[in-house]
DNA sequence: CGAAACTATGTCCGCGACGGATATATGTCA
DNA sequence: TGACATATATCCGTCGCGGACATAGTTTCG
């Protein structure tokens, strides 16, 4: 698709997961699952591949967060959303909202469920 | 991504365009553009490739609609959404709505714009 | 204690969607 | 007649997806 380069679903979900706070890879995976009520599950291939591409694109950055090793698994690598990432997220969310709005107009979304 | 095989953005937009009425390829292209306020533009590669895959998957079907050739371009091939297509669309729309809801909770979507 | 399950990060690679370029031809309008 | 929009269709390079696999520390519980 064209336009202003739409974000892939994987990228959108990761940005959404990082919008509230910094998280490490595995934490992102779990947050995506909870944000989507368990409907979206992200495997390691998608997760770490996306993280690499997003870091290269400047949407997220590795955090220098260092918590007391006794209280936090040392293997963890934390990531945070950048200003550019926030902007990309906002743009994509507007696109999502537009789709939902059109769906509403056509009565494609029953109130409940 | 996993879950119940998420629809690609292209497929979602095409289903949305066909949700109101049957349309031919080029008409779908224009409707997608208008539904998205010009933000999503679908090239012929994506359009006809998606139409083929969606027909094979039973999400849409070629319509037998035959309008008076004098009043309608004979080259046109009309497509309609199937019951399966409607179901897939509804499922995906719920996923979209969920994303928008989460975004709202985190105040990521200013009222206007 | 020991086994199992969970946490955590990462690579590899085949599959398939995307989407621009290209081709062809008709319709419309000035 | 020339230009542009309509309309369908194929080709193919690029790239994201995502399961499988690898590795290893941590927690839990009988």
From TrEMBL, chains A, B:
Pfam families: PadR (PF03551)
Domain Transcription regulator PadR N-terminal: from-to ranges: 14-90
InterPro entries documented for this protein: Metal_resp_DNA-bind_regulator (IPR052509), Tscrpt_reg_PadR_N (IPR005149), WH-like_DNA-bd_sf (IPR036388), WH_DNA-bd_sf (IPR036390)
Protein name: PadR family transcriptional regulator
Lineage: Bacteria, Bacillati, Actinomycetota, Actinomycetes, Micromonosporales
């Amino acid at each position: 698709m064209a336009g202003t380069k739409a974000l892939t679903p994987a990228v959108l979900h990761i940005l959404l997961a990082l919008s509230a706070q910094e998280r490490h890879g595995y934490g992102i995976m779990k947050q995506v699952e909870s944000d989507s009520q368990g409907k979206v599950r992200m495997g390691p291939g998608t997760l770490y591949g996306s993280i690499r591409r997003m870091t290269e694109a400047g949407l997220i950055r590795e955090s220098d967060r260092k918590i007391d090793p006794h209280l936090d698994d040392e293997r963890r690598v934390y990531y945070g959303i950048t200003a550019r990432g926030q902007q990309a997220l906002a743009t994509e969310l507007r696109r999502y909202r537009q789709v939902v709005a059109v769906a509403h107009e056509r009565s494609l979304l029953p109130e409940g469920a």
